[in-house]
Amino acid sequence: MDEALEVLRSEKRKVEVIMSRLQQELSVISRQSSSRGALEALRRDKRAKEERYQTEMCSMEAELLTVLGHIPAPDDRDVPTQLENIERTKNRELQSSQEQFQKGRFGLSRLQTQLEETENQLKAKKRRVEALQGEVAGECGEDGAVYDQVMEKLRQDIETNFDDMSAVKGSLPFFRKSLEKIHSTRKCPLCTRGFSDHAGFEKTVKSITDRLNNTVPRLLPTLEGKQHQLQEKQKTLQELKPKIEELAQLRDREIPRLDAAKGQKEAEIVKLKTELNAMEEKVTGLRTNLEQIRGLLPRVSRTSQLCRDLEELDAKIGSEESQLSGSDSSRSHVIVSRELRDVQLKIEDLDRKMDHKRQQIQSGVQEIRQLEQRVNQLRDEKLRLQERLQEKQGLLTKKEDLAAIIQKEERDIKMSAQRHGPVEEKLRRKEEEKRELCQARDEAEAVSKAEVDSLRSSVDAIGLTTQQISRYESEGGETGLRQLNGRINSIKREAEGKTRERKELEDKIKKLQKEVANVELQEREWEDQLQLMRVAADVARKERDAQKLREKMREMGLHRYDEEYSKLQQEQEKMTRERARMEGGSLGHEERVRGLQRELKGDMYRDAERKHKDMLISLRTTEMAAKDLEKYYKVLDRAIMRFHKLKMEEINKIIKELWIKTYRGGDIDVIEIRSDGDTEESGGIKTRRVYHYRVVMLKGETALDMRGRCSAGQKMLASIIIRLALAETFCVNCGLLALDEPTTNLDKDNIEGLAQALADIVKDRSSQKNFQLIVITHDTEFVDVLGQAGYTEHYFKVSKEVGETSRIRRLPLSGMEH
Fold first, then answer.
1. Is 737 helix (H, G, I), strand (E, B) or coil?
2. What is the pLDDT of residue 144?
3. To 5 degrees, how large is the angle CA 279–CA 282–CA 283?
4. Beta bridge partners of 775
């Protein structure tokens, strides 16, 4: 497409050369007299354009050397194409670098967010560790390392204290029984010996009473208080068990894992920041190069146009010089005009084709930009999909963590249930012992009842025998009675012999019992003398072993088991309450977990991590975009200021030339347009720059505003000159210049000066193919002065006919009516 456009341009240049030759030929034919003036105008135009070309090239030399690597020759026509190719290459490279830089910034933002989350988790874990250490340190050391030893020692202390307390409680019935026995038998309850005097009896009674009323009651509350303290301490230590396990989990696994993750994220962030700095420098350099190339393109185009204009001017100058030396008289004005018209039609056709090609090129460029935008959109969509995938993986990980927490709570509940098992087993054994004791009691009661029934039967038999004897006496059986009395006496004698033998055996048994009791009494006295209270528990156990069957149904044994059973029941109730509390706590934890899960699934917290990440990325992206826009704004503002300054200098230069050529007075040397710029602000934000223009007149070094200080003619002349300067600056490609009554309020000298200035403009623009000057005026002298320049031979006169219609007539300047 560019090659076709270049072919059309080349063809157009060739045709323009032909048209220029034909115009020159036609001009020579029509006005041979004005050839030297035209030649001088062409040379002046050439010098001006050469000066502009040199100025442009001097200002671009360093930049062209940087971009192209060499300074192009004046006749090099490929410089704009080379710059366009370089611009496209740099633009693609800049887009690729910007995409990489944007991806890097997104990655950095994601890593920073992850690092922040990791640091928050690490701080929370460390605070939890400090809190747990504070709770555990007072009982089991800072890290709970001696927990098992403390628990074992506490268990032994509880068992020892319980045995001591049981022994002390068991000694109370023993002392009461001993006191009753010593009062009833007046003998020692241990050795069963009588007292030799009353003092020994009182001393023994006082010793037992003192132990019963003072020593044991004073010792029992101390042991019970100590037992309660030990049990409370055991409960406290049991409650610390989960905290110690949690402390070990945090200290040994979770905190080291988070420390490692934090270090890895920090290393990745440092590496990525280094890469981003390098990419940012690269992007900045590419932007600078691209801005430099884009700034060079219009300037190089202008210099290329100046080169072509200089070539055309050289051709025209050569043509003018050749016409001055001689002209071809064989070609008529009609033939040359017809050829010139054909060439102009051909040029117009080429212009249309070139415009069509430019539109095609513009459409292709627009399509390429749309495709590039589509590629960028697809890349952004890819990044969003990747972020959603990462978010999904994060949610799965969080789900696994919550499942692990739930499993841990369930294990804690099972462990609590297992800890209650031994207590329940012990309670079951005690209940079994109680049932056995109750069964033994029932058996003993049955035996006692059988003995009572046997005695009652014996009494009944004796009563029956007595009745038979009475009946027998009443029947008069004396003989049988004597026989029976003899037999009874014989039996009595035999019974008395048996009684004596029994007494002898009883005495012998008592003697043996005394001897045994004396031995046991001596042993017990020695042991009691040494440490009675220390071995009270052993004495109670030996007493229970010696009189196990005999003392089963007595109140002391049953009361002791009742008390123990009550204690075990209390302990069971306590354990049941503890179990219910722990089960309730477990249910509370489960309900809290379910509540948290429901809350996480709610509208507020659903996709909270993704929303936070998206908003954070949007915030960071907006901040970066704001910074980039601020940079672009500053660069664009400087460029506009520079462009404004250059254009103002160019306009004032043209105004100065036109004023000097046109104004005939001596009170004003030159006029200038000056601007005062300021920046509007809205709420502290710069919006746009506003310029206030004013026209000043200079005399020497003094400058005054023209407003209110100049005449109407000066105003009109200044207005026309300013408009001509603006048209010369901004309407280079528009060759139409129209003036409506330009001589209003002008004196004769200034009218002549204006006409001369317009004639110079026509000379300067005579080489421009589409230049036209239209003057609407009633001043015939002004038209006559313009006609003397030799650039036209006719004018159009507009008049009104009788029927109020307008009529336009083409009239020769030579016949103008004054």
1. strand
2. 53
3. 85
4. 739
The radius of gyration of the chain's CA atoms, rounded to the nearest angstrom, is 65
DSSP class of residue 195 equals: P
**What average pLDDT does range 601-616 have in this prediction?**
78
Integer Cα distance of 18 and 433 in angstroms:
137
Which residues are within 8 A (CB) of 9 and not within 5 positions of it... i.e. 6 or more apart? 354
343 with 15: CB under 8 angstroms? yes
For the stretch 191-202, pLDDT in tens is 656 666 666 667
What is the bridge-based pairing of β-strands 685-699 and 670-682?
Answer: antiparallel
**How far, CA to CA in Å, does 390 sit from each of 17, 118, 166, 257, 440?**
68, 16, 67, 20, 76
Structure tokens given for 588: 């509370």
- 3-state DSSP call for residue 373? helix
Query: Which secondary-structure segment (H or E) carries 691?
Result: strand 685-699
Q: For residues 11 and 6, what is the distance between their CA atoms, to the nearest angstrom?
A: 8
Enter the tokens of residue 110.
Answer: 């994601």
CA 698, 704, 706, 710: dihedral to nearest 10 degrees?
A: -80
Residue 532, class by beta-carbon neighbours within 10 Å (0-12 exposed, 13-18 middle, 19+ buried)? middle
Which of 324, 321, 323, 306 lies closest to 45 in space, CA to CA? 306
In which region does residue 708 sit, left (phi positive, over 0), alpha (psi from -120 to 50) or beta (all else)?
left
Task: Identify the H or E element spanning 443.
Answer: helix 333-475
Tens digits of residue pLDDT in 674-721: 887 555 444 444 555 677 889 999 888 888 888 888 888 788 888 888
What are the phi and psi torsion angles at 668 (to 5°)? -125, 120
Strand partners, 738: 774
Strand partners, 681: 686
Cβ-based neighbours of 370, under 8 Å, separated by 6 or more: none
Q: 3-class SS at 675?
A: strand
Per-residue pLDDT of 755-800, as tens digits, reads 887 887 777 767 666 678 888 888 888 888 887 777 777 888 888 8
The answer to whether 283 and 98 have CB atoms below 8 angstroms apart is yes
**Would you say 432 and 565 are in contact if contact means Cβ atoms under 8 Å apart?**
no
CA distance 112 to 364: 42
Q: Tokens standing for 366?
A: 């627009």
- What's the full length of the chain, in residues? 818
45: tokens are: 């135009």
Between residues 426 and 16, which one has the greater pLDDT? Answer: 16
The number of angstroms, rounded, from the C-alpha of 359 to the middle of its chain's C-alpha atoms is 48
pTM for this structure? 0.30
Going by their DSSP bridges, the two strands 685-699 and 806-812 should be labelled as: unpaired
More confident residue, 313 or 183: 313
Task: Check residue 652 and give its pLDDT.
Answer: 92
> What is the SS3 assignment for 670?
strand
HEC sequence for 458-512:
HHHHHHHHHHHHHHHHHHCCHHHHHHHHHHHHHHHHHHHHHHHHHHHHHHHHHHH
Separation CA 11–CA 5 (nearest Å) = 10
Q: Which residue has the tokens 């026995």?
A: 181
d(CA 685, CA 295): 28
Q: Which helix (H) or strand (E) holds 690?
A: strand 685-699
Strand partners, 737: 773
562-567: list long-range contacts, CB under 8 Å, 24+ apart. Answer: 563/169, 564/166, 564/430, 565/430, 565/431, 565/434
- pLDDT tens string 428-477: 665 566 566 556 656 655 665 665 565 556 556 555 655 555 565 565 55
Band of pLDDT at residue 515, cut at 50, 70 and 90: low
Give the up-direction half-sphere exposure of residue 413: CA atoms within 13 A in the CB hemisphere.
16
| Range in 266-275, 288-297, 540-549, 708-717 with the lowest mean pLDDT | 540-549
Report yes or no: 580 and 446 within 8 Å, Cβ to Cβ.
no
Give the number of other Cβ atoms within 10 Å of residue 447's Cβ: 10
User: What gap in Å lies between CA 625 and CA 631, rounded to an integer?
Assistant: 10
